[in-house]
Amino acid sequence: MSLKIALAQLNFLVADITANSHKIIQTALRARDELGADICVFSELAITGYPPEDLLFRPDFITQTTLAVADIATQVQGIDVVLGFPEATAEGLYNSAVVLRDGAVLCVYRKNCLPNYGVFDEQRYFKAGHDISLFTVKGVTLALTICEDVWREGMLLKNKQAGANVVLTLNASPFHAGKMQLREAIIQQQVKQAAVPLVYVNQVGGQDELMFDGASFVLDQHGACVMRAAEFAEQLSVVEFINHQPLPTHCAPLYNEVASIYQALVLGVRDYVTKNGFHGALLGLSGGIDSALVLALAVDALGADKVEVVLMPSCYTQDMSSEDAITQAQTMGVRHHVIPIMPAVNAFTEMLAEVFANTAPDTTEENIQARCRGVILMAMSNKQGKILLTTGNKSEMSVGYATLYGDMAGGFAPIKDVPKLLVYALSRYRNSLSPVIPERVIERPPSAELAPDQVDADSLPAYEHLDPILERYIEGDQSAHEIIAAGFKPEDVMRAISLVDRNEYKRRQSPPGIKITTRAFGRDRRFPITSGYRGIDSK
Amino acid sequence: MSLKIALAQLNFLVADITANSHKIIQTALRARDELGADICVFSELAITGYPPEDLLFRPDFITQTTLAVADIATQVQGIDVVLGFPEATAEGLYNSAVVLRDGAVLCVYRKNCLPNYGVFDEQRYFKAGHDISLFTVKGVTLALTICEDVWREGMLLKNKQAGANVVLTLNASPFHAGKMQLREAIIQQQVKQAAVPLVYVNQVGGQDELMFDGASFVLDQHGACVMRAAEFAEQLSVVEFINHQPLPTHCAPLYNEVASIYQALVLGVRDYVTKNGFHGALLGLSGGIDSALVLALAVDALGADKVEVVLMPSCYTQDMSSEDAITQAQTMGVRHHVIPIMPAVNAFTEMLAEVFANTAPDTTEENIQARCRGVILMAMSNKQGKILLTTGNKSEMSVGYATLYGDMAGGFAPIKDVPKLLVYALSRYRNSLSPVIPERVIERPPSAELAPDQVDADSLPAYEHLDPILERYIEGDQSAHEIIAAGFKPEDVMRAISLVDRNEYKRRQSPPGIKITTRAFGRDRRFPITSGYRGIDSK
Question: What is the pTM of this model?
């Protein structure tokens, strides 16, 4: 007996219930009519997109989603629709999956395992279900599970023992580098243990800080991958099961790590800009590598006609910086403007002369330059309705080597979670596809160009040392003692982690960016600003 | 038989384990030596201060707290010390209370009810305990509970039935207007049901967005309040129990609602500024009511010598604005500077002339003025090490009537959660203590003074209508339909809520402020920026 299961890997706009339900209906009808599917499986909380956050507390929002699910049930007949939705009950809200068949609700499953760590706050919103849920199509018994459930030891086995021939899993599993490999490996393990085939449907697309990478897949009962959908793209696929076994079909190859991060960033920029309704994007192009990479990402995400750049030289800007910036802008075919900042800097210097009398120059004067650039960029953003992309990287965000309201100004920070060394790797990767970033930008020592002959290395440990220290401290929760024991110079470690500790206030006011590491700043790392913790004192 | 229980209502710096444990030791010894107490009870997670957030994931931090608790046990003898600490176990972390007696751990209680709503994320960090915990001092059986536990129906009764003569509750219960009354009423109800006296010890002081109001209390078995500590101040008190019954002693009166909010804001400013190590504070004084109130708060919090103000008139600033600002600065005895902004505004206008050719003036030009002020204030803040206080109120934050990196610039936003009408009430209250805000500032129509003859009412519904609409929408989760049905004009409701929906991105980059309502922006209200939700479409 043949059973065809369609996997609908879609990119939703969170909380746009009307558009999402329309998309679900159209996709289910395509699965029925074009693919001959018996079942069409959508992702976790498909009706709302994931994560709807505190909108889940609004009764009007819940009512709207409930009506939309009823509408889908009515409009799609002749195929079972399996989708995730917030289920309102007298005892509270559940993160549920429903099976809709010919206008009626066939069964509902309530997510058992609610993640409440990292970027997840599901116990803020949902009660945990405790039951399994099976339904039968053409003699095949299918079990419903949702995301975290299948990472939990024993959940697949429990469903198998209850009689499941195939397990369906609805997911909204966010990306970080290496996540796809981790995800397949862990779930493979569970599948092997239970000896039951599994259909895994993931959401795809960017949502604020999160990127969902798609890459939905089907494993046979031995854990072998018999089908994989593309990463970072919508896809409607179908897998045929004969005698409960999936027939192998196309497995999209996985990107390598650097390529996958690049794709995540491109889709992240595209989705943030377009889902928020901007006409395009602009950024300050300095001739340095960070803004060079962000320009490449923006053009790859939006097209050259939607992007413009502004060069804002000061008296400290080297000629080669402007030359390289213009070269890249021309290579990538984007419009560029040159607006020297010294008139505004000089105006502020004069205005502040009296209150700054008898004080020595310090970072204040550097910050004024950065903030003049911020004013210009924001003015252009306001006037044109284009979003300002911030170009700071994770190393800078970690140690606060950035000016609040200056180079930190902007609506979205594409490489906020990308450490500096990875900025280089991504730039080289992008140039390997086609050369867009001038080689000199990649080769020269990084500089903020806010003071004469300034280079980053004047203020910070070399990135070859800084980045691994930061990773150990921020992502690994290692102590200063442990990091030093791993072979890093005590003075580098002390300097780096004391800067991380002291700059939480800056990060709190930074624009959102795309999580690509195991711990990004933002909802993923919730530290107090007011804090007596000093990592340098820890043992 | 007499038993004396001391209540230690203290203001901790979160994560300053060394200072906190020193404070705990000194306080316990005072309770023993000066008050003759048998037990000294501290607040929830006293050793770390509340909330330590993701620091709880750091092994070095947990090690440090564990050692500190052991150190307290050794250093304090001759009195039982009851304090909250994060308890590391093989199966995970608990939010626990420990009783230390003469160098040893007498017993440990693990919090049963872990709040994970509103500002709370306790299920992110802790496992829930399931047991009760009793200990005996001088023949009296005492039960341990922690915060949320005693809000839960039946928890006190359970302890009473297990043999408790008195229940101790360790708390970190944050303030909002009316919270103290709510807290006493709910807990009174539970005490009456269980007929057991209760000792309630709360943390006091500001921690980022949260204010802990103290007001620790003791209820007798009938629910009558027999002792109450001050609100918004540290206090070490003692209550004597004879035959398990507390002897009535001093009950500090409660502030009325407006006064309590004013006190919360004063302590919030003081704690944020001093705990973060700033030398003082500065702010832009416009002659409007928001900055006038923030100046009053800052002076009351820090003293006039620690505060300075900057007047930054533009060509749209009316003379009376500057006059009133200078009058208030002089009345309050703070240093003021006058820095007209037009030189910088004109510089930017010229620099942008080419890119803005053939465009009409819009809010872009208004934002440039606000951002020039931001640059000046931040430069002064950077140069002097004084924190910039942001003067925006909750009504503005709700509808986005503020300029990102302009008037929104700053390290702390004292009245961020204070709606405009309450700004007036607080100003009048402050003037009733001593007249510091010129009457004309309170009487004149509010204006941003960014365009000729501009008043807020040009862009927004009158605050008498706007504020209740916002409260219903933001705090009450009401739909547009419900708000209109309550009697508000449809056009006002639609305008207000569509502005709230669209301005999440601005709020995300705003500085922290003090929560004083039932739902503040920040950790208390977690909305997606990228969102298809439109409150105006909801039914």
Answer: 0.97
